[in-house]
Amino acid sequence: MFSKLSFWHYLLFLIPIAVVAQHYHFHAIITFMLASAVLVPLAHFLGEATEVLSKKTGDHFSGIINATFGNAAELVIAILAIKSGLIDIVKYSLIGSIIGNILLILGLSIFVGGVKYGGLKLNSNITGTTIIHLSMAAMCFGVPSIFVKENSILSLNKYSICIAIVLLMVYFVGLFYTIINRENKVAAQVIKEEIESTAPTWSMAKSLTVLILATIGLVFISEILVHQIEPLIASTHIPPAFVGLIILPLVGNVAEHSVAISSALKNKINLSLAIAAESSTQIALFVSPICVLVAGLFSQNFNLIFNKIELITLGMSIGGTWLVIHDNKSNWWEGFSLLSFYLIIAIAAYFL
Q: At 304, phi and psi to the nearest 5?
C-alpha cells in the first residue's frame, strides 16, 4: 500500500501533527511551518481534481472551474486573514503573489529551462497574452490608487466595492470571450493540451470527492496558519511587509509553482509562462475583488488603495518581465536576472 503513495500523500500525514501543535500551543514558528507544509499537498490534490473536472466538463465550464479553484489556497488564506483583521498583510500578499509569479516562478522556470535546453523559444500568442494580462493587473491595482481623493473610510469602501464589481465583470466577460472566440485560441490550447496530458485518470466521483475533501482541509489548515501570523511576527520580529509580500504568496502557490517549474524542465516553457500570466490575472481580477466584497461580511474595511512603494514595485516587476519576454525568446541569464530582482525586493521588504 505504501509503495503506491506519492510524496504528496506522505505530506498529508502532517495534518494531525499540525492540529496537535495548534491545540497544545507549540511555538508559532513550528505551527506555522507545519500548517504551511500541509497546505502544499492539499493545494496539489485540489489542482489535480480541478484539472480532471475541467477535462470532463469541456470548454464551456472549464474556465469557470479554474477561476473558482485556480487560486483557492491564496483566496482562503486571504479571506481568513481579513476576518482576523490582517488587512495590510493581505494587501501585501496580493502584490506579492503577482511579483512572485512573474519574477520568482517565471524567472526560475526560464533559468532551469535555459540551463537544460539552451535558448528558449516563446510562443508569440502566449507572450502577447501575457503582456496584456500583466498590464491589466498593473492598471487594476494602480488606477484606483492614483485617482482616489476621498479620505473617509466609508467613501473608500464604496469606491472599492464599485471597482471590485467592475473587475469581476471584466474577468467573467473574459472567460466568456475565451469560450466563444474560435479564431485565436492558441494560448488556451497550449495550456489545455499540456495539462490534460498530465492530468490523473480519475472518475468524476473521485474527482468531486477529492475536491470537497481538499477544500475542507484547505479551509481548516489555513485557519491554523492565519492564527499563527501575529504570534510569528511578535516572536521573530519579521516585518509584516515581508510576511505578506514574500512568505504568504510562497505558501499559497507552492503546488502551482511546482507545475510551472517541472514544465520548464520538460521543455514546456510556454506552459510555465501561461501559468504565471493566468495566475497573476486571477489575483488582480478575481481574488482581489472577492476580498473587497467578503470583507464587508466581517465588518472589516478592506479597499483596493495601495501605497506608492507597492505600486512602483509592481510596475517595475512587470516592466522587467516585459523586457525578458517581448522578443519571444529567452535564456538562463534573463531568468537569473528576474530571480535577482525578486531577491532584491525580498531583502528590501525585510530590512526597510
A: -100, 35
pLDDT tens digits along 40-51:
888 888 877 877
**Domain spanning 2-351: which superfamily?**
NCX, central ion-binding region (1.20.1420.30)
Tracing cell 525585510 back to the chain, one arrives at 350
pLDDT at residue 228 greater than cutoff 80: yes
Backbone torsion region of residue 299, taken as left when φ is above 0, otherwise alpha when ψ lies between -120 and 50, otherwise beta: left
- Among 64-78, 146-160, 192-206, 226-240, which is the least confidently predicted range? 192-206
Task: Write down the domain spans for the chain.
Answer: 2-351
Q: What share of the chain is helix, strand, coil (3-state, %, to 5)?
A: 85, 0, 15
For the chain, the straight-line distance linking the first and the last C-alpha, in angstroms and rounded, comes to 51
Of the candidates 161, 309, 338, the residue with the CA atom closest to the CA atom of residue 245: 309
Please tell me the predicted confidence (pLDDT) of residue 65: 62
Instruction: Please choose, from the candidates 102, 91, 93, 77, the residue with its C-alpha nearest in 3D space to the C-alpha of residue 144.
Output: 91
Q: Give 51-80 as a 3 state SS string.
A: HHHHHHHCHHHHHHHHHHHCCHHHHHHHHH
Q: Are 253 and 276 in contact (CB under 8 A)?
A: no
Better-scored residue on pLDDT, 149 or 283: 283
